[in-house]
Amino acid sequence: MQNRHIYINSASACCSAGCTSEEIFRAILNGISGVQKHKGYLVNGEESAIGKMTYASSFDTLLLDNVQKVLMQSELKTFENTLLLVGTSVGGMTWAEKQFIKDEGSYENIVLEKQSMQSISLTLQQHFTFKDAITFSTACTSSSNAIVFAKEILEAGAYSEVLVVGADSISYTTVNGFNALGVLSKACATPFDLDRTGMNVAEGIGVLLLSTHPSDIELLGVGCSSDAYNITHPEPEGNGAKDAMSNALKNAGLKARDIDYINAHGTGTIANDSSEAQAILALFPHRPYVSSTKSITGHTLGACGAIETIISMHVLRQQIVPSNHNLKIKEIASLNTTQTNIKTEVNRVLSNAFAFGGNNVSIVLQRVVDEN
Amino acid sequence: MKINLKILGLSYVSAKDKCDMLEEKVLVSNMMLRRRLTRGAKIAIFLASKVGYKNEKIVFGTAYGEVQATVNIAESIYNQTALSPTAFQNSVHNTPVSYLSIVSNNIAEITTVSDLNDTSYSVLKTAAIKSLKGENILLLNIDAFGFKGLDRLNKCGLSQLEAGVGFLVQMTTQSANIFIENLHYKDTAPSLWQMLEVYEKAMQQKNPILEVEI
Q1: Superfamily, domain A6-367
Q2: Of A108, A156, A213, B101, which has the fewest CB atoms closer than 10 Å, so is most exposed?
Q3: Is the pLDDT of residue A1 over 60?
C-alpha cells in the first residue's frame, strides 16, 4: 500500500443540538443541550430525555440536505466517481416500527428495502449517483468503522474520494432498549460526573468527504479492537479501548504525548465512563484534555463517530477545547476532564467510539498548518 | 482495482429451518454463554471453527441481522410491554461476531457490513481492502430468519431459512482461478449469493484464488 495522506475536505452535520455543524459546536461551547424530555417513546408511558431533532424537515430531507451541502462545499460536480460508505445502527427500523404499529402488528407491508440497514444508502442513491456503496452496521461504532474503511480504501488508491455518512434516527427500539438495560437517563447526561444518571438516546447525521486532496484537517490515524469480554458491558479495565487508541496512534505514527485533546465516547453510563477513563489514564500519562460532547448532542448511536469527528474538526480549527457540560463533581480527579472551554493550542485530537459487543474504534485528526 | 485473495479455508451451512450439528457444546464450553448465543452467533462460531480461524480480523455480513430479537422487540413495542434487555442486546447486526470474539477471546478488529442483496459482495470488497496489510482475514456471511410470521415477509419463497458461508483468506499476487459471475441460488437469501458462488467454485479448486473487483 502506498503512503498516501488522507484529508477531510468538507463536512456537514445536524442533530438535536443544531442544524449545522457550526450550530452544534456553538451549542457545545455555550452549554445548550439538544436533549429534552419527550413523551410517547417509552412503552411504560413515562417521559424520556432524548436528543430528538425537532426541525420542520423530515429525517430523510435533512439527510439529503447535509449530503448536498457537502457536495456544494467540495470541488466535485457530482458523486459519480465517489464511494459512498454509510454507518448506521438503526437503518430503516424507525419506518418499520411505525408501519408495524399502523398495520396492527402485521409484517404484511414491511418493505425490506425500507426496513433494512441499507435503507439510508438507498435513499441517498435515489437522489445522487455514486460509483459504489457499502453500509457498515456495528452499533455505536458504525460510522467510525466507515471512516476506518474510507482511510484504508483511499490509501489503497481504489478511489479518489469517499463520502462517509453516519445517520441514525430515534426509534422506539433504541429508546426502550437502553431503558430495558437500565442505562437511560431521565435527565441530560453528565458523563464523567460522580452523580451521573446514564445516557440519552439521540438522532443525528454526520457527513464527511475524504480524499487525498490536501485540506486543513488530516485523518492521521485509525485504530480498532475488540474487548472479547461481554455483549454489552465494556471490559472494566478499559483494555479494549486502550488497544483501539494505541492502534490509532500507531497508525498515525504518533506517541501518546502528541495528542492534545480526546473527544471521549463518554456516554454517561458508569460502565462506559469508568472503562474509558481507565484506558485514557493508562495510555496518556501527560493527561491531555478530555471531554464528552454527548451531554449536548445526546448519544447519536451509529452516527456518533461521524458527528464527533466533525466536532473534533471544529476543535482543531477554532483551537478551543470544549467543556464537559454538566460536569459538577469529577469522579476521577486525575482524568483531565475540562469544566470550562479552554482556548489553547490543539494540533491533534483523538476521538473514541465504542459499541455493543466490545467493538472499539479510535480516530486521530491533525490540524494542517499552511506554512505559507 | 482488482485484489486476489487466496482462500485458505472455507465452510458452509444451510438448512430449511434451523441448522443443526453446529457443535456448540464442543465449541462453547461455558454453559451460561452458550445459552445466550443467538442463531447467527452459533453459525458464526461453527463456520469459524471449520476454516482454520486463529483470531484473525473479521469481516462479517448480514442483510437481515438478528431477526428473532428484532421481532421480539417489535412485538413488545406493539403490545406496549417492557422490552427484554437480552433481546435488545442481541439485536444489533454485529452480535454474531461479537459472541465469536468473546468465545475465542479475539481482540482483533471486527467490522460488519449490511447491504441487503448486495451484502456478500460488500463482505468480499471490504475484506479484500483489509487484506492489503498482509494479514489473514476471516469472512463470514450469515442470515438466519426463521420466526413466526415469516410467511408474510418471505415473498420470494426462500426454502433455506438459515445459511452461512465462511472463508479464511489472504492477499496474493498469484493468478485468480475464481471469478464472480453473479449466479443466482433461488433457495438461499440473495444476501449470500456471491459468497455461495465463491464457495462452490473454491470447492472445485486445489488452490482457490478469488479475484475481487473493487
Answers
A1: Thiolase/Chalcone synthase (3.40.47.10)
A2: A108
A3: no
